[in-house]
Design goal:
homodimer; 370 residues; alpha/beta; TIM Barrel; eight-stranded parallel beta sheet; three-stranded antiparallel beta sheet; 15 helices; globular
Chain lengths: 370, 370
C-alpha cells in the first residue's frame, strides 16, 4: 500500500528526508532512480542493481507498450516478475518519449497520435490508455500523461500545454482502477514561473499522491531550471513527495535537494558509463584517455563498488578501447553506485541538519564534474 | 607448481579423470575452458565466471600482445591481477590468430611476420617471443608457437608444417625461463593420420608438460576430426594431459572425451550466446523465434544457472530483440554454465565407470544440438 512519510526537514534549508512505502518495498528520499527503459537498467542484472543499493527504478511506458507490449508482460506476471526486479518501479506515462522519439505526432485534446520509432506502426495514446498500460505493467508509482512542449516554446504555447495537461491529469485520476499504488500529477509551464504556479493551482484541484515537475532539463540553462524549481516547490503540498523528472547531473541533484525535491531520475549515470565517462569524488574520468593507460588506481579510491574494489583504470581503459561488453558493465556498476552513494551522503547530511555545509563543500569541490 | 594427476580411466573406454595443479588452483579434467580473448570472457565479470564453476580460462596471446601489450599487463601485476581472474589461465601462442586474423603474413623458419588486424602495424612473432609474451603475462599453461595450415592443405604442405612445428617446439622449450608453470607441445599433421603419428614422435623428443592436438575444427568434417583424435591419442603419453584445441560443440566434447581427451576450449558457448543460440538438455533454443514470445519457462528447466533460475524465455527473447546488453550477459551465463554442467556430468560418469552409457544416452538425445 503506497504512502509517504515526511521524516524531517533540514534546519537550514528546504532539503527533506522522507520514506516512500510501496507494496514492493521502501524508498528513502531524496532518492535517485536509474532508468530501466526496456525492462532492464542497461547492462546490469537485477541482482547487481540491488547490490548497488538502488531502491527504485524507472521503466518507460512508451518502450514497453510498443515492445514487448504491456499485455504480454501482464500475461508473464507483470513487469516485476518479467524482469525479476523485486523492488519498487515508477513508470512514466509514455508522453515524453512520444514527443522525443516517435514521429508524425498529432496532438488533440483527446490524446496524441504517433508512429512507433521501431516499426512505424500508428498508435493513439490517451490519458486513459497511459494509466491502463501502467496498471497492466504493475507500476508502483504511475505518472499522468502530460503535454511537454520543446524548449524553447512561446508563452502561449506553454499556457495551452498547461491547460491540456490539467485536463489530462483529471482524466488520468478518473481512469485509475487499481488501489494500493500511486499516481502523480505533473506540473508544466516551461520556464515561466507564473505558468508553473498556475499549473500547480490547477493540479491541486485533483488529489494526487505526489507531484512532479516535468518539462525541465530539456535544453534550458541550469540557472533557469533551478529558478523554476525554487519558484514551484513552495506551492507544492508539503506532505507529498516532489519529483523532478529527468534530472540530472550530480550538481543538479545536490542543488535541487536543497530546494525541497525528493525524487530524481536520469539516464546520465548509465549512458555516460557506456560512453566511458566516469564520476568520481575527485575528477571527471574519461576512461579512454591515454593518461589512464598505466593507471593502476581504481576509478575512485573512495568508492565501495565492485568495479573500484577489483579493477584498475588501466584495465577499464583497455576494455573500453577494445570495445568489450565488460567495459559497459563495470562502468555502469560504478556510475550507478556513485549516484547511490551521493544520495546516501545527501540523506546523511539532512539527518544531521548539515545539508547546507554538505552542499557548499560539494559545489566547491565538484562543480563541473560533468 | 604445475603437475597433473591421472586419477582413473573409465572401465569401458578411453575416457579419463584427472586433476591439473597450478599455482592459481586446481582444474578437474575433462575440463572445458571458456575463451577470454582480450582479458575478459565476453560479457562476464570474473565473479560471475567463478559462479558458473569455471576452473580455468583461455586467454589469447595475439590479442593481448597487440592490445594493451604484454609489457603493460606485466607492469600492472600480470594478467591475473589485471583482469582480477584468480584461477588458472592457459594462453595460446598467438599463432592461430596470426594465421586467421592478421594480414600480410610471411612465414620463415625463423618465425612469422604479420600485420596487426587492429592498426596494420608490422610484427615478427618467433617461438621465443611467443614464450616470452606468455611468461610476461603470467600464464599457468603456455603453448608452443606452431604452424597451422588451413584446411584443406596438401600432404606436402602439411608435412612441412609438421617439421617446422617440431623445430619451433624445441626452440620454445629452450626459451622457457620461468619454472612452476607448464608448456605444452602441439601436434600438427592435418587430417593425415600418419603425419599426426610422425608429429607426435618428433614432439616426444622434447619434454613437454602436456600435448595438444592443433589444427582441428578448422573446417574439416566432424568424422575426419574424430578419426584424427582416435588415431593420435594412443600415441600420446598416458601420464600427461591431452588438449584438443578449439573444440567444440557439446557432441564433439562428449565424443572426444571417450577417446581420451582431457582439455577443451572453444568460443561456441560464448559466441552462440551473444547471437541468441542457447543450449539445453532438450532442444536448441534460438531465442529470437516467435515461439518463445510468451514462453514463461526458463531456457532449461534442468539448469541451475542464474539465468534459468530467474528469467523466462519470453523475457530473454524481449531483451535479445530489443538489442539489450543484458541479453548477452544472461545468455552467456547460461551457455557457459551449460558447458560446465556437461563437464561435471562427464566426470561423474567416468567416476562411475559409466561413460559409455552416458555417451550413448547423450548422443541419442542430443545429437544435433548445434
Amino acid at each position: 500500500m503506497y504512502s509517504f512519510d515526511l521524516i524531517k526537514k533540514d534546519a537550514g534549508c528546504d532539503a527533506r528526508l522522507g520514506l516512500i512505502h510501496t507494496t514492493h518495498g521502501e524508498v528513502h528520499t531524496p532518492a535517485f532512480m536509474p532508468v530501466g527503459t526496456q525492462g532492464t537498467v542497461k547492462s546490469l542484472t537485477p541482482e547487481v542493481i540491488h547490490t548497488q543499493r538502488v531502491e527504485m527504478i524507472l521503466a518507460n511506458t512508451y518502450h514497453l507498450y510498443l515492445r514487448p507490449g504491456h499485455d504480454l508482460i501482464a500475461r508473464m506476471g507483470g513487469l516485476h516478475r518479467f524482469t525479476n526486479w523485486s523492488g519498487p518501479i515508477l513508470t512514466d506515462s509514455g508522453g515524453f518519449q512520444v514527443y522525443s522519439l516517435a514521429t508524425l505526432r498529432k496532438l488533440s485534446d483527446d490524446g496524441v497520435t504517433f508512429q512507433s520509432h521501431i516499426d512505424g506502426s500508428s498508435h493513439f495514446l490517451t490519458p486513459e490508455l497511459a494509466i491502463a498500460v501502467q496498471e497492466t505493467l504493475g507500476s508502483d508509482i504511475m505518472m499522468c500523461l502530460d503535454e511537454c512542449p520543446p524548449y524553447p516554446s512561446s508563452r502561449s504555447r506553454m499556457e495551452a500545454a498547461v491547460n491540456r495537461t490539467t485536463q489530462w491529469a483529471k482524466r488520468s485520476r478518473l481512469a485509475k482502477r487499481i488501489t494500493g499504488n500511486a499516481l502523480f500529477g505533473i506540473v508544466q509551464g516551461g520556464i515561466y514561473p507564473d505558468l508553473r504556479k498556475h499549473s500547480i493551482e490547477l493540479l491541486l484541484e485533483t488529489d494526487f499522491d505526489g507531484y512532479a515537475l516535468g518539462g525541465l532539463s530539456v535544453g534550458e540553462p541550469t540557472d533557469e531550471m533551478l529558478a523554476v524549481v525554487s519558484a514551484s516547490v513552495p506551492d507544492l503540498p508539503e506532505k507529498l513527495p516532489r519529483y523532478l523528472m529527468g534530472v540530472g547531473t550530480p550538481d543538479d541533484i545536490v542543488q535541487c535537494v536543497s530546494r525541497g525535491i525528493d525524487m530524481f531520475d536520469c539516464v546520465i549515470p548509465t549512458r555516460c558509463a557506456r560512453n566511458g565517462l566516469l564520476f568520481t569524488n575527485q575528477e571527471k574520468v574519461v576512461i579512454k584517455h591515454a593518461r589512464y593507460r598505466e593507471d593502476d588506481r581504481p576509478i575512485d579510491i573512495l568508492c565501495d563498488c565492485y568495479t573500484c574494489k577489483n579493477f584498475s583504470r588501466a584495465y577499464l581503459r583497455h576494455l573500453f578501447i577494445a570495445g568489450e561488453i565488460l567495459a559497459m558493465i563495470l562502468n555502469t556498476i560504478h556510475n550507478v553506485r556513485f549516484y547511490m552513494s551521493l544520495m546516501e551522503r545527501i540523506r546523511d547530511a539532512i539527518a544531521k541538519d548539515a545539508y547546507g555545509d554538505f552542499m557548499a563543500e560539494w559545489m566547491s569541490y565538484n562543480k563541473g564534474i560533468i
